[in-house]
Amino acid sequence: MEKLIFTHAIPRNHIFVDWDMSSICNYDCYYCNEEIHDNKVKFPDIQIAKNVVDKINLEYKDKDYAYFNLLGGEPTAWKHLDEFSYYVKKDNNKNVLQLLTNGTRSLQWWKKHAEYIDKIIVSVHVAQCNIEELVNKFNTIVNEIDVDFQIAMDVKIFDKCIEYYNYAFKNLDNKITLRPKPLKVLIGGPELMPYTDQQKRIMQELSEKHGKKSRKYGSPMLQDNNPVDVVKIITNEENNWEGWACWIGIETINITRYGDVKIGAWCNPHLVLGNIKDLSFKIPMKPVICKYDTCGCWTDIHTTKIKNYVGATL
Ligand code: SF4
Ligand code: SF4
């Protein structure tokens, strides 16, 4: 039998839906492609978004639950977020709603919307935010929403990023997870920022906070029974599984801001299954053989991969 290289601490019996919802964002990070935050692509129609939830529940009915990860540009700008969040749980209250946010909404906003949001990942864009304000705000909300902090390690202001990281490490509530996020030259692109070897080592050696969540989310991944250190894999540029069978499409699915449904976040760009305006397609449920020398994002890295797989593939 082929060797399973990565496994999950909790078997991954869920489908992870990475949904890039719009290009509406109140920030203007220089390492973010203009088209990701140009405010031109609006959020989806609420009825279409609800149809997507039904489709995912149906197509992946053998899974325990669906994990909706809303991003792009800033998902808290969606006026139908509350209605959508409620709908995600309507037919399966194990379903998870997670937001990837820059955290700028007020404490009052987070309290008002906390009921159906399970978890948020706060991307700390150091050049544009005040770390004390962010830490205070999310320490206050931590009993209502599970929170992860990721400090975006901008190479141009690396020392300030370390300063922010250390402040967060010292002052964040222990329920909150904290880790550094190495950046690409452009978000979504293949090339890592030009960190020096010393900067890479510093990132690898930063102590992380592991947090304490109200529920378990089916990660982290294990290799030889040890948690996979994703920061190390990225900074060592070891995120390469060319030739391996990859479970994107089976464990993870991606929806672009134009409504295209794809199996991976940035790889296989032409493998479009359909569009959310017409959900009549079937999801193939076969692994794909990776043909890339870099695996682009955390969601994709966290997807099961098997070397020397001999079963059917796409
Ligand atoms: S990186 Fe995120 S917060 Fe920054 S401009 Fe792009 S979408 Fe907005
Ligand atoms: S690049 Fe795509 S196919 Fe290759 S390992 Fe990553 S997610 Fe899988």
How would you describe the overall organization of this protein?
By secondary structure, the chain is α/β, with parallel strands linked by helices. Helix content is about 25%, strand content about 20%. It has 8 helices and 16 strands. It has helices at about 45-60, 80-90, 105-115, 130-140, 160-170, 195-205, 230-235, 300; strands at about 5-10, 15-20, 65-70, 95-100, 120-125, 145-155, 175-180, 210, 220-225, 225, 245, 250-255, 260, 270-275, 290, 305. The strands form 3 sheets. Strands 8-7-6-5-4-3-2-12-13-14 form a 10-stranded mixed beta sheet. Helix 1 (about 45-60) packs parallel to helix 2. The longest helix has 14 residues, at about 45-60. The structure holds iron/sulfur cluster (2 copies). One iron/sulfur cluster (SF4) binds next to loops.
Keywords:
314 residues; TIM Barrel; ten-stranded mixed beta sheet; three-stranded antiparallel beta sheet; 8 helices; 16 strands; globular; binds iron/sulfur cluster
Beta-strand percent range: 15-25%
- The gyration radius over C-alpha positions equals 19 Å
Q: How many domains?
A: 1
- Number of contiguous helices: 8
Strand order of the largest sheet: 8-7-6-5-4-3-2-12-13-14
> What is the total tally of β strands?
16
Low-confidence stretches: none
H/E series: EEHEHEHEHEHEHEEEHEEEEEHE
Query: What ions, cofactors and ligands are bound?
Result: iron/sulfur cluster
The helix-and-strand class reads alpha/beta
The 3D shape can be described as: globular
- The averaged pLDDT comes out at 91
- CATH architecture assignment: Alpha-Beta Barrel
Separation, N- and C-terminal Cα atoms:
20 Å
CATH class: Alpha Beta
Please give the largest β-sheet: 10 strands, mixed
CATH topology: TIM Barrel
